[in-house]
Amino acid sequence: MTIMTSTRLSDGRELLYFDADAESARRHQEPEQVRDRRGLPARNPDGGQLRFDELTGEWVAIAAHRQDRTHLPPEDECPLCPSDGTRRSEIPAGYEVAVFENRFPSFGPQLGGVPADPGPELHQDPEPSYGRCEVISFTDAHTGSFAELPYERVRTVVDAWAQRTETLSGLPGVQQVFCFENRGAEIGVTLHHPHGQIYAYPFVTPRALRIARLARRHFLRSGGLESQAAAILAAERTDGSRMVLEGRHFSAYVPFAARWPLEVHLVPHRHVADLSALGGAERDELAELYPELLRRFDALYDTPTPYIAAWHQAPVDPELRPAGHLHLQLTSPRRAADKLKYLAGSEAAMGAFINDTVPEETAARLREAGPA
């Protein structure tokens, strides 16, 4: 049973410890053990800005304060390693899994809503960058990867994702909660310590909105009996050529129209909106299958594979939410041992993806990379 303990950093940001049992949690329930001794100044309550792009109908976050964020520090200056006698970090005590408000957030710390469409008039007044950005550190060890975490630790991370999804979804103005991990310098990480992030957006993001609208159309056509993700998964399992692995509660496949050289979707068999809706047995299996997928990505080459692990969860919007079906999109730009896929003219300017690999061949490689 995962236990959460809440405390505050010296500038007022929230810090949460997630422990697998009462004995581990006890150390975080002693105020002196978790007190942040840095004496940071109070954080700026204003944050950045949101500006509306009239050409695309999309919100853009302006977060110039992030230019000063920590960038690839040496281990003895890592903000995610626990504080000790020689350094003070973002996390005062040793821990299993820790979640805290980002010191350099893209969204927040103010909470509130923005209109999905400001209207027909030219809208050039910035809005506050409402929302919340959190960092989730998977371990207090500086080195390693998510794939190398023990099962018990992954299971705690799953519970932390679920708890934060449920809590953040209930905050004023929040329309979408996004849990993700960027892994590798090629992806643009600014900290080597194994960690992910959780964003609570004040709007439904453009790609999520497109997916949600198509999902709703399918759901309504089925009379509310089938999600689009379930229909796609059923077709993939029947075809078989792009399947990577199958479990009792989850299955993973390379999509028919994969955009990236390496792309796998991990989908629960049951129609659930988000991570918080997963039951105990589903979370147990997820803690086994997800790291297995990551290990297969790494097994393809002699060096670790960079990736983005993106959890697509149903928007909070009551019109879109019933059709939403939780799934992971795990992608990598690595198209060969020494080559990366860059988003150049067609992808970056036009949004038209060109994939250099064949999905069926990628799936076969990932199947072969699994346990003998």
From TrEMBL:
GO terms for cellular component: cytoplasm. It catalyses: alpha-D-galactose 1-phosphate + UDP-alpha-D-glucose = alpha-D-glucose 1-phosphate + UDP-alpha-D-galactose. It holds the Pfam family GalP_UDP_tr_C. The active site is at H195 (tele-ump-histidine intermediate). Residues 49-204 form the Galactose-1-phosphate uridyl transferase N-terminal domain. Its cofactor is Zn(2+). Binds 1 zinc ion per subunit. Zn(2+) binds at C78, C81, H142, H193. Residues 235-368 form the Galactose-1-phosphate uridyl transferase C-terminal domain. Residues 23-39 have a biased composition (Basic and acidic residues). Keywords: Carbohydrate metabolism, Galactose metabolism, Metal-binding, Nucleotidyltransferase, Transferase, Zinc. GO terms for molecular function: UDP-glucose:hexose-1-phosphate uridylyltransferase activity; zinc ion binding. Its EC number is 2.7.7.12. Pathway: Carbohydrate metabolism; galactose metabolism. It is an enzyme of class 2 (transferase). It comes from the Bacteria. Residues 22-49 are annotated as: Disordered. One of its GO terms (biological process) is galactose catabolic process via UDP-galactose, Leloir pathway. The keyword DNA-binding does not apply. Belongs to the galactose-1-phosphate uridylyltransferase type 1 family. This is Galactose-1-phosphate uridylyltransferase.
